[in-house]
Amino acid sequence: MGQNLIEHRPAMVWLTELQKAKAEGGTTTKPKITVQDLLERINDPNAPEQALIPTSPRSVQACFRLGVDPVDLQFHPVHWYKQKEDADEEVTRLRYERYEAVRQERLRLLIEERKHLINENWQANTDPRAMLRRNDSGADPRSSSAMVEKERQRLEVLKRRQEKELQQMVQYEITRKELLDKQQKRVEEQERRAMEQAQLKIQHEAARMAKQREIELQRMAEEKEMERRARVLAEETYRSYRTKLSKTWLIHAREEAHKKEEEHRKHLERLDKYAAALETEEMCKLSVKERAAEKERLLAELNARRKKENDLKKVDSDFQLKLRLDKVDCIQKMSLYNRQQLLERIMHDYDKTRELLKERQDLQTQRKMANMNASLQRQMMSKAMDSLRFTKNVGSLSSGGSVNINDLLSRTRPSTAL
């Protein structure tokens, strides 16, 4: 498999690359690359990551608003989703269909968001401070501070909620894994006991048949020994009393021979029964082996079916985990973008405050200089009036019946004055 399915690029890398692409798209004369232009590149599984970054300002803004990383929208074939523990192609196919549906949905939302920006007549501005200055020309720095504090509190609450959700997810996965392990151990213990009982039964049956066979062999040996002894005894008796036998003895001998033949026939019947018992024993052994093989086959099928069900459940749980982590990643990226915008707004307010302070200082300096000039003029006017008291030719100071103040001040101004 190519990479971890739940792996994402760091939010700061995502923000930096998109801001760089947005700046390049707004300043260069090269054709802008939109999300729709990237469809062919995204569908190429071998395309490099840098080729998947749009440069159109609206496309980049849509990624900012949705918290979507265009690198995550790259297509991957079915075999890319195969894992080592996958024993069935259906599991890989299900994983591929789930993740591909999410990828298509995110791509659709990104295209719709770009169209929405076009309908809003959204205009890009490569200088964020200038855009904020245009939109927030009358903003109050105190309201900005309050908004910063409110945003910080909201981010703190969001962070605690995300940590709580992640902790609940981890606890749920741990509990589910413990239950699955206990269930698996219980099933394995039952299967092991069943196999041990079957083996013990086979061993007991084999021991019983072996013991029965030993008893039959011992009985046959005893019968053969008795027959041999009887034959020897009969021969000895026949040789001893052959001359003394009468017709009655001959009849008795025939009866004895008939009796021995009957015993021999019964012995043959016992041998036939013993052979039939051996054949029945072999058939029982074969039947036990067949039942054991059938049970092993059914057990293997059951294990394969359970493994497939567990794999499908794991695919579903991994997919749900990815959805939650994707949501967390989108929230983090959108929060980072909002914090960046808030920081730029704060910097704008700071620059504006500095400009206002500078203008205020300039006005204060101008007022101070004006006051100083007025005070100087009052002093010079006082000196001029004092000099008029001692002037004999007052008419020379007037022209046309009026006194020129500038001429009066120039006469009374010290020679070192500028």
Automatic annotation (TrEMBL):
Keywords: Coiled coil. Residues 131-150 are annotated as: Disordered. Residues 250-312 form a coiled coil. It comes from the Eukaryota. This is Uncharacterized protein.
